[in-house]
Amino acid sequence: MITVIDYSVGNVKSVCNALEHIGCEAKLSCAPKDIEGAWGIVLPGVAAFGYAVSALGSLAGLVRDVALAGKPLLGICVGYQMLFEESCEYGLHKGLGLISGRVVPIPPGRVIPHMGWNLVSLPEDMDLFAGLGAAKHFYFAHSFCADVADAGAKIAYADYGFELTAAVQKANIYGTQFHPEKSGPAGLTVLQNFYDICKRKAQ
Amino acid sequence: MLTRRIIPCLDVKDGRVVKGVNFLNLRDAGDPVELGARYSDSGADELVFLDITATIRSRKTIVELVRKVAENVFIPFTVGGGIRTVEQMDELLRSGAEKVSVNTAAVANPDLIAEAARRFGNQCVVLAIDARRSKDRPGHWQVCVKAGSEPTDIDVVEWAARGEELGAGEILLTSMDADGTQAGYDNALNKAVTDAVNIPVIASGGAGTLEHLYDAIVEGGADAVLMASITHFENYTITQIKQYLRDRGIPMNL
């Protein structure tokens, strides 16, 4: 079972729908026992960073603890941005600090938000992208992006006139700036891969 | 590189998809859940659902509809029509919509855009503008509200720029003059707005041929093109549209 963290904001339903579509039992919950008992955790993200962090509230410590203890964690969009140390979206906010780096505005000089389908180059050694080939289009919708400063993190990039960080992986911690639940078949494969990682870990 | 987006629009009235000409003479175009799933499976980049009745009774229907659509649609979709408060937006987003669009309520209360952007992030907030060519001021367009029935004195280009300042993440720009005519987008309008803002603009109203879509992107500068008549009634498939545009050098997710 995968627990999708319900922090009472935004489009959390779509992630559950997509997980259920691939045959994964998904529970939308913010109960500590569901976070502790799950095979894996998804931190979805449709909200501004500060709002999402404060909505997560005291659960932040628990999510951090179970992730550091080895439970697979997938952050999506703002949920992915929350994996880093801090963000400056509408004021300075602290993130979970699981991966070194900051969330900063997309550099000016291009259309912002970065909204739509962009081609992501998929490194072979990133488990989320197994079976997807060298590159695929995914759906993005964001105005801020992560500036990763973690030597231990694997990174997948998209080209938006600069090298935009599209996904990270550090041990059992995964994050995608794009929305796999809204990226058609390629996105469903990413979720399937995460589910497989969780199942393997649980057995 | 970001691809340009092909976005079918589903105008929903009494639980059915309808399509009119210049916002009038509606004809039935099918079941929204079925049509939504078909578009999601056939390569559309995004969907827009507009509740064109937008009454208190239809509000409950649209939330239920969003829930059903979201179970079978794995591409982003925007919901709009009659949205007045951030609580209504929250309900729609929690039911599975990726973005919400505001129109009349934002004109009456521009702070709604800012409030929504702070709570959900800019990328969730679409400012829908129904534009009509001004009879008094050539080369200008006026913002119309209440499903296009009520013209205002607000200039479309200025309103779009103000919407961006307030925190809208995207502009859904509909030409009322061109809507449903299948005679081409109003690219002077599209160009005026895309030049004035730095957020994505979805051109809407008037698509009849594949060339019209190309022109909206190249002449109008649109980041995405919205269409209804030409895909609902199956004149063209999404794949045909994307192949045509890709062959003419437009980046497509195909």
Describe this entry's structure for a reader.
The complex is a heterodimer of chains A (203) and B (254). Chain A has 203 residues and is α/β, with parallel strands linked by helices. The model of chain A has no long low-confidence stretch (mean pLDDT 93). Chain A has helices at residues 13-21, 32-37, 49-56, 59-68, 78-81, 184-202, and strands at 2-5, 26-29, 40-43, 73-76, 86-87, 93-94, 101-105, 114-121, 135-142, 144-148, 154-159, 163-170, 173-176. Chain B is an alpha/beta fold and 254 residues long. In chain B, 37% of the residues lie in helices and 27% in strands. Chain B has helices spanning 32-41, 56-72, 86-94, 104-108, 111-120, 156-166, 187-196, 210-218, 229-232, 238-247, and strands at residues 5-13, 16-21, 24-30, 47-51, 77-80, 99-102, 125-133, 141-145, 150-155, 170-175, 201-204, 224-227. Chain B has an eight-stranded parallel barrel with strand order 1-4-5-6-7-10-11-12, surrounded by eight helices. In chain B, a hairpin with a 7-residue loop joins β7 and β8. In chain B, α1 (32-41) runs parallel beside α2 and α6 (156-166) packs parallel to α7. Chain B is globular and about 45 Å long. Classes of the chains: A alpha/beta (203), B alpha/beta (254). Chain A binds chain B through residues 9-14, 17-18, 21, 46-49, 51, 78, 89-90, 111-119, 137, 139-143, 159-160, 179, 181-185, 187-188, and chain B through 1-5, 40, 43, 45-46, 67, 70-71, 74-76, 90, 93-99, 117-124, 169-170, 198-200, 223-224, 253.
